[in-house]
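Reviewers of the previous submission asked for a worked example of the structure-prediction workflow described in the proposal, so we include one complete record here. The input consisted solely of the amino acid sequence. No template or homolog information was supplied to the procedure at any stage.
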Amino acid sequence: MAAILLALVFHRFGRGGNFHGEPFQYTAIRQILANRAFWIMVVLFSLGISSTLGIFTMLPLYLVTDHGMDRNWANTLIAISRVAGIAMALAGGWATDRFGPKRILRIIFVLTGLLTVFISLAPPRWVAAAVFLQPIMAVCFFPAGLAALSMVSSAGERNLTVSLTIPMAFLLGGGAVPALIGIIGEIQSFGWGIALVGGLIMTGSIFANFIRLQDQTRG
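From that input alone, the workflow returned the following structure tokens.
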């Protein structure tokens, strides 16, 4: 119901472009795939999804296996930790409008990566705080990421750019990354896997420097 209500509110008050998107054709797709900024956005969204869905998927197993936490309490802790993300997503949108997507992306990737590493290194008495803090910062990626994604191609190509970027990023961030954490967990520990992903997330601040945004006035 909330999604339907928001759609109606946007239909009534939202501001959208008065143009048609590109059809799903070979020439249009080839042009997008030839754009270096598109591939950078695939990497950034893969890292952003890794910091949210990728970590979220393996976090219960890490808390139970590496910290001996009760399974029900681990699931409850993780669920509660996601509530504050709603307000932080709005704050991330405001910051993106204020400072520009590139600057916000650089900050978010560094802080999210550090907090992800903190989850893996935190002693038992601090692990609950780490579980709360990491998603609060991680969710801020999406307002800035979507704003940047809308600027890497022309207005007519945005529909195809989004349609190609998100599925690729989900395969990597939501599929390959949890599998990687699981493999490292079998070999060493899940904490090592989460720490490695945290380090990868921090590299997003480097990739963000190389995005060329169209109609960019800030960041």
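The domain at 26-210 is CATH 1.20.1250.20 (Growth Hormone; Chain: A;). We consider this example representative of the routine output the project will generate in years two and three.
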